[in-house]
């Protein structure tokens, strides 16, 4: 049998070790084929599992898997994997990570890691405001300005609502929600209430289907990057700083730190290592 070392880290933590979004990181994915990586992601049964591989373009390459499919990019796997790469390779606080969506620059100050997202693009939604609201279990009057499909690594739907109360009321209708489709045929929505520049906060929840159910993610870095893209679309040229809170409703409180500077989107969060182990195959 071959042994594969892995670590469990929590990303986007908020004031405790059992906060944020968990991630399994296999330290060396060489020798594992795609089928086995996917099976291991299902075995770990976390939001994502990553596999570190050699790269000719960056300090390391990473492949990212949910329990059901491989992703080209995701935020908390990028930050959590970078945390492990720094430990393994003594890279220091500045490194590049090769993903299937391109090379992502990542920087650290202590254990707060920040990635620079790809330049965002966007498109309008096809559904009317009334239909979209119904898909999310909301009233049309709950929606705020301009829902958009955004891609700064992975396309997701950004849905701004009027206030935090509307975020908390969101309860997607399973059958209707799954009719929302990204370019890669996935149904994902980031429901957000922006507190404005003076307050500098956003309340967010991220919904996606898992089997027949609609579930919620504790902290979604790719969606936070797409929220930065939404600001680029709706407030071109503006510099934005936000603390995004997510995960409280599923008992995994999380903080994500969003910056938009001169049209470039940055997403950061605190990372802690929780456990190490060895798996035999």
What are the main properties of this structure?
281 residues, alpha+beta, Diaminopimelate Epimerase, Chain A, domain 1, eight-stranded mixed beta barrel, 6 helices, 20% helix
Walk me through what this model shows.
The chain is an alpha+beta fold and 281 residues long. It has two domains: 3-116 and 269-280, Roll (Diaminopimelate Epimerase, Chain A, domain 1); 121-267, Diaminopimelate Epimerase, Chain A, domain 1 (Roll), CATH 3.10.310.10. It is built from six helices and 17 strands. The protein has helices at 34-44, 75-89, 129-135, 164-169, 174-177, 221-234, and strands at 3-11, 21-26, 48-53, 60-65, 70-71, 94-99, 102-109, 112-116, 121-124, 148-151, 156-160, 189-194, 201-210, 213-217, 240-246, 254-261, 264-280. An eight-stranded mixed beta barrel has the order 1-2-3-4-6-7-8-17. α1 links the parallel β2 (21-26) and β3 (48-53). The longest helix has 15 residues, at 75-89. The chain is globular and about 60 Å long. It starts with a strand and ends with a strand. 48% of the residues are buried.
Describe the secondary-structure layout:
Layout: E1 3-11, E2 21-26, H1 34-44, E3 48-53, E4 60-65, E5 70-71, H2 75-89, E6 94-99, E7 102-109, E8 112-116, E9 121-124, H3 129-135, E10 148-151, E11 156-160, H4 164-169, H5 174-177, E12 189-194, E13 201-210, E14 213-217, H6 221-234, E15 240-246, E16 254-261, E17 264-280
Parallel strand pairs: 2-3, 4-6, 11-12, 13-15
Antiparallel strand pairs: 1-2, 1-17, 3-4, 4-5, 6-7, 7-8, 8-17, 9-10, 10-11, 12-13, 13-14, 15-16, 16-17
């Amino acid at each position: 049998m071959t042994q594969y070392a892995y670590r469990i880290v929590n990303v986007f933590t908020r004031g405790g070790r059992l906060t944020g979004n968990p991630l399994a990181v296999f330290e060396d994915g060489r020798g594992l084929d795609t089928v086995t990586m996917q099976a291991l992601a299902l075995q770990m049964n976390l939001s994502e599992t990553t596999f570190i591989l050699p790269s000719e373009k960056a300090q390391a390459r990473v492949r990212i898997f949910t329990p059901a499919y491989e992703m080209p990019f995701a935020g908390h796997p990028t930050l959590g994997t970078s945390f492990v790469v720094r430990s393994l390779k003594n890279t220091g606080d500045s490194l590049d990570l090769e993903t299937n969506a391109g090379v992502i620059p990542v920087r650290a100050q202590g254990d707060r890691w920040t990635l620079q997202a790809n330049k965002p693009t966007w498109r309008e939604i096809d559904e009317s405001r009334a239909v979209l609201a119904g898909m999310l279990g909301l009233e049309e009057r709950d929606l705020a300005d301009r829902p958009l499909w955004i891609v700064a690594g992975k396309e997701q739907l950004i849905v701004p609502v009027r206030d935090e109360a509307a975020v908390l009321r969101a309860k997607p209708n399973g059958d209707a929600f799954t009719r929302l489709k990204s370019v890669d045929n996935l149904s994902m929505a980031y429901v957000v209430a922006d507190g404005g520049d003076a307050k500098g906060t956003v309340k967010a929840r991220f919904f996606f289907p898992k089997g027949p159910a609609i579930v919620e993610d504790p902290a979604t870095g790719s969606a936070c990057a797409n929220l930065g893209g939404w600001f680029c679309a709706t407030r071109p040229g503006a510099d934005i700083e936000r603390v995004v809170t997510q995960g409280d409703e599923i008992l995994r409180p999380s903080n994500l730190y969003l910056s938009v500077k001169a049209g470039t989107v940055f997403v950061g969060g605190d990372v802690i290592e929780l456990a190490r182990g060895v798996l035999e195959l």
